Amino acid sequence: MNKPSTFHSPTFSPLYRQIRALITRSLESGEWGPGDIIPSESELAIRFGVSQGTVRKAIDEMAAENLLVRRQGKGTFVATHNDPRSFFRFLRLAANEGELQPSKSVPLECWRAKAGPDVARTLALEPGAPIIIVRRLLCFANEPVVFDEIYLPGELFPDLTLDILKSGTSSLYSLFESRYGVRMIRADERLRAVSADRVSSELLQVAEGSPLLLVERVTFTYADKPVEWRRGYYSTQNFHYHNELG
Amino acid sequence: MNKPSTFHSPTFSPLYRQIRALITRSLESGEWGPGDIIPSESELAIRFGVSQGTVRKAIDEMAAENLLVRRQGKGTFVATHNDPRSFFRFLRLAANEGELQPSKSVPLECWRAKAGPDVARTLALEPGAPIIIVRRLLCFANEPVVFDEIYLPGELFPDLTLDILKSGTSSLYSLFESRYGVRMIRADERLRAVSADRVSSELLQVAEGSPLLLVERVTFTYADKPVEWRRGYYSTQNFHYHNELG
DNA sequence: CAGTGGTCTAGACCACCTC
DNA sequence: AGGTGGTCTAGACCACTGA
Which of A12, A125, B66, B156 is the 20 to 30 A CA-CA neighbour of B125? Predict the structure, then answer.
Protein backbone atom coordinates (compact mmCIF):
# COMPACT_ATOMS: atom_id res chain seq x y z
CA MET A 1 0.00 0.00 0.00
CA ASN A 2 1.43 3.31 -1.08
CA LYS A 3 1.53 5.71 1.80
CA PRO A 4 1.29 9.37 0.90
CA SER A 5 4.73 10.90 0.62
CA THR A 6 5.89 14.22 1.92
CA PHE A 7 6.44 15.43 -1.63
CA HIS A 8 3.65 17.17 -3.40
CA SER A 9 2.03 14.93 -5.96
CA PRO A 10 -0.78 15.90 -8.28
CA THR A 11 -2.16 12.36 -8.08
CA PHE A 12 -2.08 12.28 -4.30
CA SER A 13 -4.99 10.55 -2.73
CA PRO A 14 -5.31 9.49 0.87
CA LEU A 15 -4.95 5.87 1.83
CA TYR A 16 -8.63 5.36 2.56
CA ARG A 17 -9.47 6.39 -1.01
CA GLN A 18 -7.07 3.83 -2.37
CA ILE A 19 -8.79 1.25 -0.16
CA ARG A 20 -12.10 2.49 -1.45
CA ALA A 21 -10.92 1.98 -5.01
CA LEU A 22 -9.87 -1.57 -4.19
CA ILE A 23 -13.23 -2.37 -2.64
CA THR A 24 -14.98 -0.83 -5.64
CA ARG A 25 -12.91 -3.02 -7.94
CA SER A 26 -14.10 -6.11 -6.09
CA LEU A 27 -17.67 -4.91 -6.52
CA GLU A 28 -17.20 -4.33 -10.25
CA SER A 29 -15.50 -7.67 -10.76
CA GLY A 30 -18.35 -9.43 -9.06
CA GLU A 31 -16.25 -10.84 -6.24
CA TRP A 32 -19.03 -9.63 -3.98
CA GLY A 33 -22.48 -9.53 -5.59
CA PRO A 34 -25.59 -7.50 -4.68
CA GLY A 35 -26.93 -8.53 -1.30
CA ASP A 36 -23.73 -10.39 -0.37
CA ILE A 37 -21.94 -9.76 2.87
CA ILE A 38 -18.40 -8.45 2.42
CA PRO A 39 -15.50 -9.38 4.71
CA SER A 40 -15.41 -7.72 8.10
CA GLU A 41 -13.51 -4.50 8.64
CA SER A 42 -10.71 -6.27 10.48
CA GLU A 43 -10.35 -8.90 7.74
CA LEU A 44 -10.15 -6.19 5.08
CA ALA A 45 -7.64 -4.30 7.21
CA ILE A 46 -5.36 -7.34 7.25
CA ARG A 47 -5.92 -8.05 3.56
CA PHE A 48 -5.01 -4.51 2.56
CA GLY A 49 -2.33 -4.04 5.18
CA VAL A 50 -3.85 -0.96 6.79
CA SER A 51 -5.53 -0.24 10.09
CA GLN A 52 -9.17 -0.98 10.73
CA GLY A 53 -9.91 2.73 11.03
CA THR A 54 -8.75 3.33 7.49
CA VAL A 55 -10.95 0.56 6.11
CA ARG A 56 -13.75 2.00 8.17
CA LYS A 57 -13.39 5.44 6.61
CA ALA A 58 -13.46 3.92 3.10
CA ILE A 59 -16.63 1.98 3.90
CA ASP A 60 -18.13 5.08 5.53
CA GLU A 61 -17.91 6.93 2.24
CA MET A 62 -19.31 4.06 0.23
CA ALA A 63 -22.18 3.59 2.65
CA ALA A 64 -22.98 7.30 2.40
CA GLU A 65 -23.29 6.86 -1.37
CA ASN A 66 -25.52 3.81 -1.02
CA LEU A 67 -22.97 1.43 -2.49
CA LEU A 68 -22.72 -0.55 0.73
CA VAL A 69 -25.08 -1.02 3.65
CA ARG A 70 -23.86 -1.47 7.22
CA ARG A 71 -25.85 -3.48 9.73
CA GLN A 72 -24.59 -3.37 13.25
CA GLY A 73 -23.83 -6.75 14.71
CA LYS A 74 -24.25 -8.46 11.34
CA GLY A 75 -21.76 -7.07 8.87
CA THR A 76 -21.48 -4.89 5.77
CA PHE A 77 -23.47 -5.80 2.66
CA VAL A 78 -23.46 -4.87 -1.01
CA ALA A 79 -26.45 -2.64 -1.74
CA THR A 80 -29.15 -4.21 -3.87
CA HIS A 81 -32.30 -3.00 -5.60
CA ASN A 82 -34.00 -6.18 -4.38
CA ASP A 83 -34.24 -4.62 -0.98
CA PRO A 84 -37.72 -3.11 -0.78
CA ARG A 85 -36.31 -0.36 1.42
CA SER A 86 -34.43 0.97 -1.59
CA PHE A 87 -37.46 1.02 -3.85
CA PHE A 88 -37.93 4.77 -3.61
CA ARG A 89 -34.28 5.60 -3.98
CA PHE A 90 -34.85 6.47 -7.64
CA LEU A 91 -38.56 7.20 -7.57
CA ARG A 92 -39.27 10.49 -5.89
CA LEU A 93 -43.01 10.09 -6.11
CA ALA A 94 -45.47 10.80 -3.32
CA ALA A 95 -49.23 11.11 -2.98
CA ASN A 96 -50.73 14.56 -2.41
CA GLU A 97 -52.88 13.10 0.35
CA GLY A 98 -51.99 10.17 2.56
CA GLU A 99 -49.52 7.38 2.03
CA LEU A 100 -48.48 6.04 -1.34
CA GLN A 101 -50.39 2.88 -2.23
CA PRO A 102 -48.51 -0.18 -3.47
CA SER A 103 -47.51 0.15 -7.09
CA LYS A 104 -47.85 -2.06 -10.12
CA SER A 105 -45.56 -1.91 -13.14
CA VAL A 106 -47.34 -2.70 -16.41
CA PRO A 107 -44.95 -3.40 -19.32
CA LEU A 108 -46.56 -2.40 -22.60
CA GLU A 109 -44.00 -2.86 -25.36
CA CYS A 110 -40.42 -3.98 -25.80
CA TRP A 111 -38.60 -3.92 -29.10
CA ARG A 112 -35.12 -3.67 -30.55
CA ALA A 113 -33.85 -0.83 -32.71
CA LYS A 114 -30.70 0.98 -33.76
CA ALA A 115 -29.44 3.97 -31.81
CA GLY A 116 -30.20 7.36 -33.32
CA PRO A 117 -27.80 10.22 -32.66
CA ASP A 118 -29.51 11.34 -29.44
CA VAL A 119 -29.61 7.91 -27.81
CA ALA A 120 -26.09 7.12 -28.99
CA ARG A 121 -24.72 10.29 -27.43
CA THR A 122 -26.57 9.86 -24.18
CA LEU A 123 -25.62 6.20 -23.73
CA ALA A 124 -22.09 6.64 -25.13
CA LEU A 125 -22.74 4.20 -27.99
CA GLU A 126 -21.87 4.26 -31.67
CA PRO A 127 -24.74 5.59 -33.79
CA GLY A 128 -26.56 2.56 -35.16
CA ALA A 129 -25.60 0.34 -32.23
CA PRO A 130 -28.34 -2.05 -31.09
CA ILE A 131 -30.64 -0.71 -28.41
CA ILE A 132 -33.80 -1.84 -26.67
CA ILE A 133 -36.85 0.36 -26.22
CA VAL A 134 -39.32 -0.39 -23.45
CA ARG A 135 -42.61 1.27 -22.71
CA ARG A 136 -44.38 0.70 -19.46
CA LEU A 137 -46.94 2.18 -17.14
CA LEU A 138 -46.68 2.65 -13.40
CA CYS A 139 -49.94 2.48 -11.50
CA PHE A 140 -50.77 3.32 -7.92
CA ALA A 141 -54.04 2.06 -6.51
CA ASN A 142 -54.93 1.01 -10.07
CA GLU A 143 -54.58 4.56 -11.29
CA PRO A 144 -52.03 5.15 -14.07
CA VAL A 145 -49.50 7.71 -12.84
CA VAL A 146 -46.27 7.40 -14.83
CA PHE A 147 -45.67 6.47 -18.46
CA ASP A 148 -42.03 5.52 -19.04
CA GLU A 149 -40.16 5.18 -22.31
CA ILE A 150 -36.83 3.50 -21.64
CA TYR A 151 -33.75 3.15 -23.87
CA LEU A 152 -31.17 0.50 -23.03
CA PRO A 153 -27.92 -0.62 -24.70
CA GLY A 154 -28.79 -3.89 -26.48
CA GLU A 155 -25.53 -5.58 -25.62
CA LEU A 156 -26.03 -5.46 -21.89
CA PHE A 157 -29.48 -7.04 -21.97
CA PRO A 158 -29.10 -9.83 -24.55
CA ASP A 159 -32.41 -11.68 -24.25
CA LEU A 160 -34.71 -9.05 -22.77
CA THR A 161 -38.28 -9.44 -24.02
CA LEU A 162 -41.72 -8.23 -23.03
CA ASP A 163 -42.47 -11.60 -21.46
CA ILE A 164 -39.43 -11.38 -19.22
CA LEU A 165 -40.47 -7.88 -18.18
CA LYS A 166 -43.96 -9.13 -17.41
CA SER A 167 -42.62 -12.00 -15.33
CA GLY A 168 -40.45 -9.69 -13.23
CA THR A 169 -42.03 -9.60 -9.82
CA SER A 170 -40.40 -6.49 -8.42
CA SER A 171 -38.72 -3.38 -9.79
CA LEU A 172 -37.03 -3.02 -13.16
CA TYR A 173 -33.67 -2.30 -11.58
CA SER A 174 -33.99 -5.41 -9.46
CA LEU A 175 -34.52 -7.43 -12.65
CA PHE A 176 -31.59 -5.78 -14.40
CA GLU A 177 -29.40 -6.51 -11.44
CA SER A 178 -30.25 -10.15 -10.85
CA ARG A 179 -30.70 -11.23 -14.47
CA TYR A 180 -28.08 -9.14 -16.28
CA GLY A 181 -25.68 -8.14 -13.54
CA VAL A 182 -26.21 -4.45 -14.34
CA ARG A 183 -26.31 -2.38 -11.15
CA MET A 184 -27.73 1.13 -11.21
CA ILE A 185 -25.62 3.33 -8.97
CA ARG A 186 -26.69 6.90 -9.53
CA ALA A 187 -28.86 8.95 -11.86
CA ASP A 188 -29.21 12.44 -13.28
CA GLU A 189 -32.70 13.83 -13.78
CA ARG A 190 -33.97 16.82 -15.73
CA LEU A 191 -37.52 17.92 -15.07
CA ARG A 192 -39.76 19.96 -17.35
CA ALA A 193 -43.46 20.65 -17.75
CA VAL A 194 -44.92 19.60 -21.12
CA SER A 195 -48.30 19.14 -22.78
CA ALA A 196 -49.66 15.61 -23.01
CA ASP A 197 -49.52 14.20 -26.53
CA ARG A 198 -52.07 11.69 -27.75
CA VAL A 199 -50.29 8.54 -26.59
CA SER A 200 -49.48 9.84 -23.12
CA SER A 201 -52.90 11.34 -22.58
CA GLU A 202 -54.65 8.08 -23.44
CA LEU A 203 -52.38 5.94 -21.30
CA LEU A 204 -52.56 8.27 -18.33
CA GLN A 205 -56.27 8.96 -18.82
CA VAL A 206 -55.94 12.72 -18.94
CA ALA A 207 -57.08 15.24 -21.53
CA GLU A 208 -54.81 15.73 -24.52
CA GLY A 209 -52.75 18.88 -24.00
CA SER A 210 -53.03 18.84 -20.24
CA PRO A 211 -49.79 19.51 -18.35
CA LEU A 212 -47.51 16.57 -17.52
CA LEU A 213 -44.26 16.45 -15.62
CA LEU A 214 -41.52 15.15 -17.91
CA VAL A 215 -38.66 13.49 -16.04
CA GLU A 216 -35.66 12.67 -18.20
CA ARG A 217 -33.26 10.35 -16.46
CA VAL A 218 -29.79 9.07 -17.33
CA THR A 219 -28.73 6.24 -15.06
CA PHE A 220 -25.14 5.19 -14.47
CA THR A 221 -23.43 2.04 -13.30
CA TYR A 222 -19.89 1.75 -11.94
CA ALA A 223 -17.22 4.00 -13.44
CA ASP A 224 -19.92 6.50 -14.44
CA LYS A 225 -20.95 4.42 -17.42
CA PRO A 226 -24.44 5.40 -18.66
CA VAL A 227 -26.69 2.35 -19.06
CA GLU A 228 -30.21 3.73 -19.23
CA TRP A 229 -31.99 6.69 -20.72
CA ARG A 230 -35.55 7.16 -19.63
CA ARG A 231 -38.32 9.64 -20.30
CA GLY A 232 -41.07 9.49 -17.72
CA TYR A 233 -44.36 11.36 -18.08
CA TYR A 234 -45.87 11.92 -14.65
CA SER A 235 -49.52 12.74 -14.14
CA THR A 236 -49.45 15.16 -11.22
CA GLN A 237 -53.11 15.60 -10.38
CA ASN A 238 -53.02 13.41 -7.28
CA PHE A 239 -49.28 12.85 -7.01
CA HIS A 240 -46.15 14.95 -6.96
CA TYR A 241 -42.40 14.65 -7.31
CA HIS A 242 -40.86 15.04 -3.90
CA ASN A 243 -37.39 16.44 -3.34
CA GLU A 244 -35.52 17.32 -0.20
CA LEU A 245 -32.91 20.04 -0.33
CA GLY A 246 -30.20 19.84 2.31
CA MET B 1 -20.23 15.26 29.61
CA ASN B 2 -22.48 12.22 30.01
CA LYS B 3 -20.74 9.17 28.75
CA PRO B 4 -23.01 6.40 27.49
CA SER B 5 -23.65 3.87 30.22
CA THR B 6 -23.58 0.12 29.93
CA PHE B 7 -27.29 0.03 30.70
CA HIS B 8 -29.71 0.17 27.86
CA SER B 9 -31.32 3.58 27.63
CA PRO B 10 -34.00 4.63 25.18
CA THR B 11 -32.51 8.11 25.06
CA PHE B 12 -28.98 6.90 24.41
CA SER B 13 -27.03 8.98 21.97
CA PRO B 14 -23.32 8.80 21.34
CA LEU B 15 -21.02 11.43 22.70
CA TYR B 16 -20.38 13.05 19.34
CA ARG B 17 -24.11 13.69 18.92
CA GLN B 18 -24.23 15.44 22.27
CA ILE B 19 -21.30 17.56 21.13
CA ARG B 20 -23.14 18.24 17.90
CA ALA B 21 -26.17 19.41 19.86
CA LEU B 22 -23.96 21.77 21.88
CA ILE B 23 -22.41 23.24 18.74
CA THR B 24 -25.87 23.61 17.20
CA ARG B 25 -27.01 25.47 20.30
CA SER B 26 -24.18 27.95 19.89
CA LEU B 27 -25.25 28.45 16.28
CA GLU B 28 -28.87 29.05 17.24
CA SER B 29 -27.96 31.41 20.05
CA GLY B 30 -25.85 33.45 17.68
CA GLU B 31 -22.60 32.90 19.54
CA TRP B 32 -21.14 32.19 16.10
CA GLY B 33 -22.87 33.95 13.21
CA PRO B 34 -23.00 33.10 9.50
CA GLY B 35 -19.56 33.36 7.93
CA ASP B 36 -17.80 33.41 11.31
CA ILE B 37 -14.97 31.07 12.11
CA ILE B 38 -15.69 28.74 15.01
CA PRO B 39 -13.07 27.64 17.55
CA SER B 40 -10.58 25.02 16.39
CA GLU B 41 -11.22 21.35 16.97
CA SER B 42 -8.70 21.17 19.77
CA GLU B 43 -10.17 24.22 21.51
CA LEU B 44 -13.65 22.72 21.34
CA ALA B 45 -12.29 19.41 22.60
CA ILE B 46 -10.93 21.13 25.70
CA ARG B 47 -14.07 23.20 26.16
CA PHE B 48 -16.34 20.14 26.02
CA GLY B 49 -13.95 17.81 27.78
CA VAL B 50 -13.74 15.21 25.02
CA SER B 51 -11.09 14.12 22.58
CA GLN B 52 -10.41 15.95 19.35
CA GLY B 53 -11.63 12.95 17.35
CA THR B 54 -15.06 13.19 18.93
CA VAL B 55 -15.38 16.88 18.12
CA ARG B 56 -14.20 16.02 14.64
CA LYS B 57 -16.96 13.49 14.11
CA ALA B 58 -19.60 15.98 15.26
CA ILE B 59 -18.29 18.60 12.86
CA ASP B 60 -18.09 15.98 10.09
CA GLU B 61 -21.82 15.42 10.33
CA MET B 62 -22.65 19.10 10.41
CA ALA B 63 -20.38 19.81 7.45
CA ALA B 64 -22.10 17.00 5.51
CA GLU B 65 -25.41 18.79 6.11
CA ASN B 66 -24.02 22.16 5.02
CA LEU B 67 -24.32 23.70 8.46
CA LEU B 68 -20.57 24.21 8.72
CA VAL B 69 -17.83 24.53 6.13
CA ARG B 70 -14.31 23.26 6.70
CA ARG B 71 -11.33 24.88 5.04
CA GLN B 72 -8.06 23.10 5.44
CA GLY B 73 -5.35 25.21 7.02
CA LYS B 74 -7.81 27.98 7.89
CA GLY B 75 -10.51 26.69 10.16
CA THR B 76 -14.17 25.75 10.32
CA PHE B 77 -16.80 28.35 9.40
CA VAL B 78 -20.53 28.79 9.84
CA ALA B 79 -22.24 28.28 6.49
CA THR B 80 -23.74 31.38 4.93
CA HIS B 81 -25.97 32.16 1.99
CA ASN B 82 -23.72 35.10 1.26
CA ASP B 83 -21.20 32.71 -0.15
CA PRO B 84 -21.78 32.71 -3.92
CA ARG B 85 -20.77 29.04 -3.97
CA SER B 86 -23.95 28.19 -2.10
CA PHE B 87 -26.21 30.13 -4.46
CA PHE B 88 -27.49 27.00 -6.19
CA ARG B 89 -27.95 25.02 -3.00
CA PHE B 90 -31.68 25.70 -3.12
CA LEU B 91 -32.10 26.51 -6.81
CA ARG B 92 -31.89 23.40 -8.91
CA LEU B 93 -32.12 25.27 -12.18
CA ALA B 94 -29.97 24.66 -15.23
CA ALA B 95 -29.99 25.75 -18.85
CA ASN B 96 -30.87 23.19 -21.51
CA GLU B 97 -27.88 24.34 -23.54
CA GLY B 98 -24.66 25.75 -22.17
CA GLU B 99 -23.95 27.37 -18.84
CA LEU B 100 -26.47 29.26 -16.77
CA GLN B 101 -26.14 33.02 -17.27
CA PRO B 102 -25.98 35.32 -14.25
CA SER B 103 -29.40 35.86 -12.76
CA LYS B 104 -31.35 38.92 -11.71
CA SER B 105 -34.05 38.92 -9.06
CA VAL B 106 -36.86 41.41 -9.78
CA PRO B 107 -39.11 42.08 -6.76
CA LEU B 108 -42.63 42.95 -7.94
CA GLU B 109 -44.83 43.28 -4.88
CA CYS B 110 -44.60 43.01 -1.11
CA TRP B 111 -47.55 43.38 1.21
CA ARG B 112 -48.78 42.29 4.61
CA ALA B 113 -51.81 40.11 5.24
CA LYS B 114 -53.31 37.70 7.74
CA ALA B 115 -52.61 33.99 7.49
CA GLY B 116 -55.36 31.89 5.95
CA PRO B 117 -55.76 28.29 7.06
CA ASP B 118 -53.30 26.90 4.46
CA VAL B 119 -50.49 29.32 5.20
CA ALA B 120 -51.08 29.03 8.94
CA ARG B 121 -50.81 25.24 8.83
CA THR B 122 -47.74 25.21 6.61
CA LEU B 123 -45.85 27.83 8.63
CA ALA B 124 -47.12 26.56 12.01
CA LEU B 125 -48.80 29.88 12.83
CA GLU B 126 -52.15 30.76 14.33
CA PRO B 127 -54.80 31.44 11.68
CA GLY B 128 -54.96 35.21 11.27
CA ALA B 129 -51.36 35.73 12.32
CA PRO B 130 -49.53 38.46 10.41
CA ILE B 131 -47.73 37.29 7.28
CA ILE B 132 -45.87 38.89 4.41
CA ILE B 133 -46.49 38.03 0.78
CA VAL B 134 -43.77 38.69 -1.79
CA ARG B 135 -43.92 38.30 -5.53
CA ARG B 136 -40.81 38.36 -7.60
CA LEU B 137 -39.40 37.32 -10.93
CA LEU B 138 -36.14 35.54 -11.57
CA CYS B 139 -34.49 36.31 -14.90
CA PHE B 140 -31.57 34.70 -16.66
CA ALA B 141 -29.96 36.58 -19.52
CA ASN B 142 -32.88 39.04 -19.26
CA GLU B 143 -35.37 36.28 -19.91
CA PRO B 144 -38.02 35.71 -17.21
CA VAL B 145 -37.75 32.10 -16.00
CA VAL B 146 -39.27 31.80 -12.52
CA PHE B 147 -42.21 33.59 -10.94
CA ASP B 148 -42.19 33.19 -7.16
CA GLU B 149 -44.95 33.86 -4.67
CA ILE B 150 -43.50 33.79 -1.18
CA TYR B 151 -45.23 33.65 2.21
CA LEU B 152 -43.28 34.64 5.32
CA PRO B 153 -44.19 34.89 9.02
CA GLY B 154 -44.60 38.63 9.67
CA GLU B 155 -42.99 38.52 13.09
CA LEU B 156 -39.62 37.34 11.83
CA PHE B 157 -39.26 40.08 9.20
CA PRO B 158 -40.52 43.18 11.03
CA ASP B 159 -39.71 45.95 8.57
CA LEU B 160 -39.52 44.11 5.26
CA THR B 161 -40.69 46.24 2.35
CA LEU B 162 -40.47 46.21 -1.42
CA ASP B 163 -37.74 48.85 -1.27
CA ILE B 164 -35.60 46.70 0.98
CA LEU B 165 -36.08 43.76 -1.35
CA LYS B 166 -35.06 45.93 -4.28
CA SER B 167 -31.96 47.16 -2.52
CA GLY B 168 -30.81 43.62 -1.72
CA THR B 169 -27.78 43.01 -3.87
CA SER B 170 -27.65 39.22 -3.71
CA SER B 171 -30.04 36.38 -2.96
CA LEU B 172 -33.18 36.57 -0.84
CA TYR B 173 -31.82 34.10 1.69
CA SER B 174 -28.70 36.16 2.01
CA LEU B 175 -30.84 39.20 2.84
CA PHE B 176 -32.94 37.24 5.34
CA GLU B 177 -29.80 35.99 7.00
CA SER B 178 -27.89 39.24 7.34
CA ARG B 179 -30.82 41.57 8.00
CA TYR B 180 -33.15 39.39 10.08
CA GLY B 181 -30.90 36.65 11.40
CA VAL B 182 -33.10 33.99 9.82
CA ARG B 183 -30.98 31.18 8.39
CA MET B 184 -32.49 28.75 5.91
CA ILE B 185 -31.16 25.28 6.67
CA ARG B 186 -33.14 22.82 4.58
CA ALA B 187 -36.20 22.70 2.37
CA ASP B 188 -38.88 20.32 1.15
CA GLU B 189 -40.08 20.66 -2.43
CA ARG B 190 -43.12 19.26 -4.23
CA LEU B 191 -43.13 19.47 -8.00
CA ARG B 192 -46.13 19.35 -10.31
CA ALA B 193 -46.98 20.35 -13.86
CA VAL B 194 -49.74 22.95 -14.17
CA SER B 195 -51.26 25.23 -16.79
CA ALA B 196 -50.16 28.86 -16.81
CA ASP B 197 -52.85 31.22 -15.51
CA ARG B 198 -53.13 34.76 -16.77
CA VAL B 199 -50.75 36.37 -14.29
CA SER B 200 -48.01 33.77 -14.67
CA SER B 201 -48.28 33.62 -18.43
CA GLU B 202 -47.91 37.38 -18.77
CA LEU B 203 -45.00 37.62 -16.37
CA LEU B 204 -43.16 34.67 -17.90
CA GLN B 205 -44.07 35.69 -21.46
CA VAL B 206 -45.63 32.39 -22.42
CA ALA B 207 -49.06 31.57 -23.80
CA GLU B 208 -51.90 31.28 -21.29
CA GLY B 209 -52.52 27.61 -20.55
CA SER B 210 -49.07 26.46 -21.55
CA PRO B 211 -47.41 23.98 -19.17
CA LEU B 212 -45.39 25.33 -16.24
CA LEU B 213 -43.42 23.52 -13.60
CA LEU B 214 -44.87 24.35 -10.18
CA VAL B 215 -42.34 24.04 -7.36
CA GLU B 216 -43.85 24.31 -3.89
CA ARG B 217 -41.22 24.76 -1.24
CA VAL B 218 -41.32 24.82 2.55
CA THR B 219 -38.07 26.06 4.02
CA PHE B 220 -36.92 25.36 7.57
CA THR B 221 -34.53 27.00 9.97
CA TYR B 222 -32.97 25.40 13.06
CA ALA B 223 -35.07 22.93 15.03
CA ASP B 224 -37.11 22.20 11.91
CA LYS B 225 -39.09 25.39 12.27
CA PRO B 226 -40.82 26.33 8.98
CA VAL B 227 -40.12 29.95 8.03
CA GLU B 228 -41.00 30.20 4.35
CA TRP B 229 -43.63 28.85 2.02
CA ARG B 230 -43.00 29.46 -1.63
CA ARG B 231 -44.74 28.67 -4.89
CA GLY B 232 -42.46 28.96 -7.88
CA TYR B 233 -43.70 28.77 -11.45
CA TYR B 234 -40.85 27.71 -13.72
CA SER B 235 -40.91 28.25 -17.46
CA THR B 236 -39.16 25.16 -18.79
CA GLN B 237 -38.75 25.93 -22.47
CA ASN B 238 -35.05 26.70 -22.26
CA PHE B 239 -34.36 25.63 -18.70
CA HIS B 240 -34.97 22.60 -16.53
CA TYR B 241 -34.98 21.52 -12.92
CA HIS B 242 -31.90 19.44 -12.30
CA ASN B 243 -31.73 16.71 -9.70
CA GLU B 244 -29.08 14.14 -8.89
CA LEU B 245 -30.14 10.85 -7.39
CA GLY B 246 -27.51 9.05 -5.36
C1' DC C 1 -20.75 -16.67 23.81
C1' DA C 2 -18.06 -14.94 19.82
C1' DG C 3 -18.21 -11.86 16.00
C1' DT C 4 -19.77 -7.74 13.87
C1' DG C 5 -20.08 -2.77 13.43
C1' DG C 6 -20.05 1.72 16.49
C1' DT C 7 -17.73 4.85 19.67
C1' DC C 8 -13.94 7.06 22.00
C1' DT C 9 -9.28 8.02 23.03
C1' DA C 10 -4.28 9.55 22.49
C1' DG C 11 -0.71 10.45 19.73
C1' DA C 12 1.88 10.94 15.50
C1' DC C 13 2.48 12.97 11.24
C1' DC C 14 0.92 15.32 6.70
C1' DA C 15 -1.12 19.12 3.86
C1' DC C 16 -2.43 23.70 3.67
C1' DC C 17 -2.67 28.59 5.00
C1' DT C 18 -0.92 32.85 7.13
C1' DC C 19 2.35 35.57 9.26
C1' DA D 1 7.26 29.03 12.40
C1' DG D 2 2.98 28.03 14.13
C1' DG D 3 -1.77 27.16 13.53
C1' DT D 4 -5.55 24.80 11.16
C1' DG D 5 -7.88 20.78 9.35
C1' DG D 6 -6.79 15.90 7.24
C1' DT D 7 -4.97 11.23 7.68
C1' DC D 8 -3.46 7.10 9.97
C1' DT D 9 -2.63 4.13 13.73
C1' DA D 10 -3.41 1.08 17.90
C1' DG D 11 -6.08 -0.17 21.44
C1' DA D 12 -10.04 -0.20 24.51
C1' DC D 13 -14.70 -0.67 25.23
C1' DC D 14 -19.92 -0.51 23.89
C1' DA D 15 -24.10 -2.13 21.25
C1' DC D 16 -26.18 -5.40 18.49
C1' DT D 17 -26.89 -10.02 16.36
C1' DG D 18 -27.29 -14.88 16.17
C1' DA D 19 -25.87 -19.47 17.40
Answer: B66
- The protein residues having a beta carbon less than 7 Å from any atom of strand D are A 3-4, 14-17, 50-54, 57, 71-74; B 4-6, 8, 12, 38, 40-43, 53, 56, 70-76
Domains of chain B: 15-78 (1.10.10.10), 84-241 (3.40.1410.10)
Query: At a CB cut-off of 8 Å and minimum separation 6, what does A244 contact?
Result: B186, B187, B188, B189
Read off the pLDDT of residues B110-159 as tens digits, 9 standing for 90 and up.
999 999 999 999 999 999 999 999 999 999 988 999 999 999 999 999 99
pLDDT tens per residue, range B5-51: 444 455 678 999 999 999 999 999 999 999 999 999 999 999 999 99
Nearest CB partner across the interface for B191, out of A65, A188, A241: A241
- Using a CB–CB cut-off of 8 Å, the residues of B that contact A are 64-66, 89-90, 92, 94, 186-195, 210-214, 217, 234, 236, 240-246
Q: What is the pLDDT of residues B73-120, one digit of tens each?
A: 999 999 999 887 777 889 999 999 988 777 889 999 999 999 999 999
Going by C-alpha positions, the residue among A125, A122, A127 that lies closest to residue A216 is A122
Q: Which residues pair with B55 in a beta bridge?
A: none
Distance of alpha carbon B31 from alpha carbon B47, whole angstroms: 15
- Residue B26 to residues B191, B197, B208, Cα–Cα distance (Å): 35, 46, 50
Residues B116, B39: Cα–Cα separation, whole Å:
44
Nucleotides in C strand less than 7 A from protein CB: 3-11, 14-18
Mean pLDDT of the A47-62 span:
97
Q: Which helix (H) or strand (E) holds A55?
A: helix A52-64
What is the edge-to-edge ordering of all strands in the sheet holding B68-71? B37-38, B75-78, B68-71
Beta bridge partners of B147: B137, B233
Residue of A nearest to B184 (CA): A246
CA A243, CA B244: separation in Å to the nearest integer? Answer: 10
Q: Which nucleotide is nearest to A76 (CA to C1')?
A: C5
Sign of CA dihedral A81, A85, A89, A95: positive
Please answer yes or no on whether B213 and A190 come within 8 Å at the CB atom: no
